[in-house]
Specification:
Blueprint (H helix, E strand, L loop, with lengths): L4 H14 L4 H8 L3 H9 L6 H11 L3 H5 L10 H6 L3 H16 L6
Helix pairs in contact: 1-3, 2-3
Length: about 110
């Protein structure tokens, strides 16, 4: 997985522009300052897990879209791995994941 700040920042900027957000509106939606988001987009500031989750929600994309993962890696996706498991394990893990998401603290 590419976690190069510049590459991730460029992806975030491209996704923001594609979604039609100006920097100010986007930073307001994320609850961050324009300066913070600009630093992320320029690659001089790394993103936190909380910001990644907010970006996913605001941009309506998956983490792979933000982190620069290619769709060529679908065989390594969680969905692909789940499909390889027997049904009881798949249901158990899906339930656990959804429970974790439901109990994840909301961004302030």
């Amino acid at each position: 997985m590419s976690n190069d700040g510049l590459v991730v920042g460029q992806k975030i900027r491209n996704l923001r522009v594609e979604a039609g957000y100006e920097l100010g509106e986007f930073s307001d939606e994320l609850g961050k300052s324009e300066s913070h988001i600009k630093q992320v987009e320029l690659g001089s500031r790394k993103i936190s897990l909380d910001l990644l989750i907010s970006l996913i929600e605001v941009l309506n994309v998956d983490a792979n879209s933000i982190l620069g993962e290619s769709s060529d890696h679908k065989d390594n996706s969680i969905d692909a791995k789940l499909q390889e498991l027997p049904e009881p394990q798949r249901q158990y893990l899906t339930t656990m994941f959804l429970t974790m998401l439901a109990n994840y603290p909301a961004a302030a």
